Each structure stands twice: as C-alpha cells, then as structure tokens.
C-alpha cells in the first residue's frame, strides 16, 4: 500500500504478510505446546503480523503527464482502438468505450479530446441548425464553460437554466462542430465553405482566438471573387482590418470583383458603399452592368418578377450613385441608354450633358471617380543602346521578383526602339511556380526615346508577399532597342520593398544587372 503525506514529499510503502488460515492453526498448536506454563490468555493470542516500512524519496520538481509520457504513436496493439475513438468523435456513433480507454491517451488534452462530439458523460445536448437541417450534438457543461464565457453564463451564471437540450437555429452544424473541436481539442479546423459561419459562431459565443484564426484564414484566401461578400460580412462582424483588406482588393481589381457571382449576394448597404467608392478602379459601364445584375438577383430574393420597373425599385436611390455621365459616349449610347432602366427624360438629359454647351442638372453624380494611381518600380540606374543590342527574335526576356507587402501588378514598363519611332507587339506573362496568373498580348508605340512604355494586363494580378514571381515578355518589332544596366537587386518603392533575381526562363539575356522589363507597374 502506497501512502503519501499532504505535501507529497515522502511516500511510504507498507508491506503486509498475510498468513493463510491453515498456517495460523499450525502455529497456534506449536505455541500452545511450548507455552503450558504460561497463562491461558497468552496461549490464545495469534502471533503479530509482520510488516516493513520503506521510505521512498521523490524529486522536488513535479512533472505533468505530458512530460512523463511524450507524445508518440501508440503501440501496434492500441492503434486500432485509438483510431476507433477518433472515428467515434467524428461520427458521434455513441459506441460504448472499451475498458480503460483512458489508458490510451497519456495527456489530459488527448483524453479531453475523446469527449468531443461524444455522448459519453454528456450532460447537455444542442439541436443546431435551421428547421429541416438540424443536428443533435452532445456537450459537457464543464468543458464548454472553460472554453467560453457565454457557455459559463449559460450553465453556471446567476440566470442559468437547467435544460438538457438547447436549440441553436442560427448556427450551422458544421460551424458549431468546428467551434466545439477548438474548445475540446485545442485544434482549429477551418474550411473555405464554412469559415464565415464558424466566425459567426466564434463571435456569438466569445471565443476570440478562434475568431482571430477565422479572420486570418479569410485574409489569406481573399480574392476578387469573394471580396464583396467578405466586405459585407466584415462590416457585420466588426472586423476593421478585414474590411480594409477587402477594400484594397475591390479597389485594385474592381472589374473582376463587380463581375463575380459574389457581388450579387451582398446586402443593399454594401452595394451603396461600393457604388459611392471614389477609388474604384473600373469603367463606369462595368459598374452599371453590375448594379443591374444585383437588382435582378434582389428581385428573386424579394420574390418579385425581374421587370425593369422592379429592378429600378430595388435599386432605389442607389441608381443615382452610378456615375453614368462619366461613361464614354459609346458605352452610354450602346449600353445604359438602351437598358430601359432610365426614364426618357433622364436619357435625354444625359445626351445633352455630353453634347450641349449648357449642360442640364442631373441627379446622377457627374464627377469621375479618382481611381487608383499606379506606382512604378524602376530597377535600373541607367540605360543604353548599342549597334548590336538589344535584339528580339521571338526569345523571352524574364526576371523574378518578390515583394514584402501584398500588391497588384497592373503591367510592365518596357523599353522601345533606339533607332527612331517604332511599333512593338508584346506578349506579357506573370507566373508563380510555373502557373500563369496573368497574360496579355498588346501593342505599344515607342517614340525613339529612352523612356519606358507601359503594357497592361487585362486585369491587375494579386501578388502575395515573400514569394517569388516570374515576369516575362516576348517582343516582336524593331531589332534594336534600349536596354537597362546597373540593375539593383532590391528597390524601395514607397512602402513596398521589391527584390529581384535572375530567371531561368530568360533566353534573351535579361537578368538582374541588365536587359528588358525595367519597370513593374502596380497598385498598393
């Protein structure tokens, strides 16, 4: 028997020698024969029980279970059982645990994780999800209260209600399970299709670290396709950092964002904020068409027939936030004027705005948007030309670069002819690890100077920090052009630092020290 004092410093081991009845009887007979001269009381006594006391010294430093049992793969004999319990957690199949299942897990964290989505010892159940799509999930009040102040108030607060079943219709089951997994297992398991719902659950039950992880996940996966939806959600969840990141993407890649399916899913307040945006980098005809697409989907949400009248009705005053008078005349005449969304008087007044010296008053905003001012990163300190350089015969000029902040590459600045004015055909590409992210085929005219001439992608390409990308161009035109020299491996451009290195794709001589692609044109 092991005994320990209150301070846990000394332990004693008491060893008892138990004698069988037969042995006791024999020893009693021998004792009675030898002890005839002794009193009758002493002859009836059994011999004393033998014992031994051993003092064990313990180390002063206490160790936790994780220190004593370092995490490692279970032995082969237990592998099947461990996998069985993990599968039980996922499926909630309520199988009866094997005896001594606690022995399979050396740490309290692992044993606690067994309780995740497990009916074993559950003292509360949640019916999660909207009617028709509910899922019944088990819970353990103590574990939940430790992980969330909302659950603590719900189960142990002054106004706690003793309910065995709690209905949560406003949270998706998958999101609630993701939150429970974090509380029970200290693991964050996020997916693109459930991260917003998980963020909602984390906000509702005040689980800040999980909420922060959701925001980080969203920022990492942010693109023009989902920026408008995330903008709407970030305002709802009061996440200003995420809101700012969404605006950066929407401003720089406005046309892609406005043409995305997610744009039609935003609420009216978000629609108004986008239409008001001064720095929106898009043609106004694209803004107009996006607003009409949103109006058609909004009619469906309100169970209205998608007629011209109903589209105008759901748009309301937001229609006048579209800067129709700033469109190109062709865009207005062939697009907005024939859409039917404008009244006859509005159409006539806007035509007069384009042509008349005395312009009529309009309800529409007539001041063009400022858009974004592109920045240029020039990587050469000088340029030159020679009688035998720089030649183009279908070969590729390429350079690799990396930035320390997220930017959006809009195009490249290229050198032109060194023998007078000339026209070039340029195929530009932007790749990451061999995958083409953007490309375009266009022409530009050079005037014979050493200036650089911009060549643009159809849409700006999002560039993530601390990753090398490959910029390439294949030129067709005048055989001789200017080329850069005294190249820099690192250039500070505003708040963005750009690093350059040679590319194996370059077959025409361009590298860090000299060559083509003198400029990166980007939004930041």
From TrEMBL:
Q: Which keywords describe this protein according to UniProt? A: Cytoplasm
The signal sequence is none
**Which residue stretches does the UniProt record annotate as biased composition, category Low complexity?**
34-45
What do the Gene Ontology cellular component annotations say? cytosol
Task: Tell me which InterPro entries the record gives.
Answer: BACK (IPR011705), BTB/POZ_dom (IPR000210), PHR (IPR012983), PHR_sf (IPR038648), SKP1/BTB/POZ_sf (IPR011333)
Where does this polypeptide localize? Cytoplasm
GO BP annotation list: cerebral cortex development; dendrite morphogenesis
By what name is this protein known? BTBD3 protein
Note the Gene3D superfamilies from the entry.
Answer: 1.25.40.420, PHR domain, Potassium Channel Kv1.1, Chain A
Instruction: Specify where the region named Disordered lies, as residue ranges.
Output: 25-45
Provide the BTB domain boundaries: 122-192
Database matches in PROSITE patterns: BTB
Query: What CDD domains does this protein's entry cite?
Result: BACK_BTBD3, BTB_POZ_BTBD3
């Amino acid at each position: 028997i092991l005994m320990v004092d209150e301070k846990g410093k000394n332990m004693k081991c008491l060893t008892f020698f138990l004698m069988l009845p037969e042995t006791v009887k024999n020893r009693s007979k021998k004792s009675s024969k030898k002890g005839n001269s002794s009193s009758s009381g002493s002859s009836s006594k059994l011999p004393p029980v033998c014992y031994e006391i051993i003092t064990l010294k313990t180390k002063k430093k206490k160790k936790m279970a994780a220190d004593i049992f370092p995490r490692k793969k279970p032995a082969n004999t237990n592998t099947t059982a461990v996998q069985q319990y993990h599968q039980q957690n996922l499926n909630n199949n309520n199988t009866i645990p094997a005896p001594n299942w606690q022995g399979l897990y050396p740490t309290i964290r692992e044993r606690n994780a067994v309780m995740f989505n497990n009916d074993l010892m559950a003292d509360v159940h949640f019916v999660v999800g909207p009617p028709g799509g509910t899922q019944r999930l088990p819970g353990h009040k103590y574990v939940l209260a430790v992980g969330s102040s909302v659950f603590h108030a719900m189960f142990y607060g002054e106004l706690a209600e003793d309910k065995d079943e709690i209905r949560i219709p406003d949270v998706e089951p998958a999101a609630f399970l993701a939150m429970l997994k974090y509380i029970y297992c200290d693991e964050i398991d996020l997916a693109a299709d459930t991260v917003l719902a998980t963020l909602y659950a984390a906000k509702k039950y005040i689980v800040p670290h999980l909420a922060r992880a959701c925001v980080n996940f969203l920022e990492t996966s942010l693109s023009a396709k989902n920026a408008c939806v995330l903008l709407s959600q970030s305002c709802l969840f009061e996440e200003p950092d995420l809101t700012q990141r969404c605006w950066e993407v929407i401003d720089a890649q406005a046309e892609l964002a406005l043409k995305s399916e997610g744009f039609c899913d935003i609420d009216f307040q978000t629609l108004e904020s986008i239409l008001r945006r001064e720095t929106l980098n898009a043609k106004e005809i694209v803004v107009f068409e996006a607003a009409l697409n949103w109006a058609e989907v909004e009619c469906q949400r309100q169970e209205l027939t998608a007629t011209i009248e109903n589209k105008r009705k759901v748009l309301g005053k937001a229609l006048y936030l579209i800067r129709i008078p700033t469109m190109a005349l062709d865009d207005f005449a062939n697009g907005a004027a024939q859409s039917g969304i404008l009244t006859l008087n509005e159409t006539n007044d806007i035509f007069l705005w384009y042509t008349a010296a005395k312009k009529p008053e309009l309800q529409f905003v007539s001041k063009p948007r400022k858009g974004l001012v592109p920045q240029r990163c020039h990587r050469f300190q000088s340029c030159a030309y020679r009688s035998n350089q720089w030649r183009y015969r279908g070969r590729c000029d390429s350079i690799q670069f990396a930035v320390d902040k997220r930017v959006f590459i809009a195009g490249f600045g290229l050198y032109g002819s060194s023998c007078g004015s000339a026209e070039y055909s340029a195929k530009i590409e932007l790749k990451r690890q061999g995958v083409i992210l953007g490309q375009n085929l266009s022409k530009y005219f050079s005037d014979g100077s050493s200036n650089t001439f911009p060549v643009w992608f159809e849409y700006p390409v999002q560039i993530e920090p601390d990753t090398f990308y490959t910029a390439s161009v294949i030129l067709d035109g005048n055989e001789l052009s200017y080329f850069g020299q005294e190249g820099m491996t690192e250039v500070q451009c505003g708040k963005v630092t750009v690093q350059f290195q040679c590319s194996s794709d370059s077959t025409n001589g361009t590298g860090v020290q000299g060559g083509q692609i003198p400029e990166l044109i980007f939004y930041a």
